[in-house]
Amino acid sequence: MIRALQMTDLPWVRALYADFLAETNPQYPRFGPQALDRFVLVLSHALREDPTFHGTVATDDNDRLIGFLLGNLTRRLIGEPEWVLAPHVLYVVPAHRGQGISRQLAREFIGWYREHYPHVDDIEIYARADDPQWQQRGFTSFLTTVHGSFALADAYVVGKSTIKAPVMNGPDDPMNGSVDRE
Asked: Which of 12, 27, 51, 164 is at 20 to 30 A from 19, Cα to Cα?
C-alpha cells in the first residue's frame, strides 16, 4: 500500500534510512553516530511545521514499511520558476525492488503536490554529477553542487586565507573534506 508519511512511521523510516546509508556508503555528506537521530528530529519538525514537506511510504501486506520518498518545495530567491519540488531521498528495500514501488511512491508524492500546490509544475532532483540516469530520461542538468568548508570559502571566495593551498586529487583533496586547517 502507498500512503502519506505519519509520525508513527518515523522509527521505521529511520531504520530504512540506516539501510540506505549502509547500502550506498555516501562519502558526502558525512554521517556520524547522531545523524539518524537528527534525521528523525528534522522529519518530525517538517511534518508538524513545514506545509511544503511531504513524505510517502510503501508498506507490504503485513503493514511493514518497505520504502519511502521525502521532499519539499524550494523557493528561489530570484528567477523562474519561483517554486520547485525537491525530492530529497527515495529508498525501497532490495527485496521489493523491480516491482514498480518507486513509481507508485512518486505518483502519490507528485500527486499530493499537484493537489496542494497547483501553481508548482517543476521538479529539481538532486543527483550526483556522474549519474547519467536523469539525462537519459530527458531531464536537463543545469547545476553542479560543490561542497567544502568555510575555510575553503574564506580562502577562495572571501579572500582571507586560513588554510594551506589544497593538493587536488590527493588524500587531502578538499572534496574529501580533509583539508589541513591551521
From this structure: 51
